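== Protein entry: sequence and backbone fold ==
=== Local backbone shapes as whole numbers ===
==== Amino acids and backbone structure tokens ====
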Amino acid sequence: MKTGDRSVGPAKLRVRQCPALPPQLQKTTRELVNVETPFTEQGKGYMTTLIHKVCREADKANLVLVLTPQPYGDNMNLSKQQLEDWYARSFGFHVIQTEPMTLMARMVNGTPKALELTHLAASLYCMKEQTK
């Protein structure tokens, strides 16, 4: 899985090796940072589609995903708890550390059952966007 910027519509994030992890863990882990959707475009499914895509990429590469749920940029209207709940419910991330900051991780193929039901909807949404 390559590191770098990813986007779907106006939603964007960066995938990188996590510099805070020991070198041996950096090989099997990728960190999601700068996760942001402009305020006017929130709630339209762009970020959900993007993170689904990144999760599938990570699963194919057998990589664990980590992130720090923190309001950022135009996402300041969401609380840290709302972000934690969304990442857990929608993508299978789990809190693995709370101090000095919250860290969440998603194991390979860690997608919850509820997401399997929405996978088809996300695929259809991507196809719809491509035909515009």
About this structure: Residues 4-130 form a domain with the Aminopeptidase fold (CATH 3.40.630). The helical segments are 23-26, 46-60, 80-91, 113-130. The chain has one domain: 4-130.
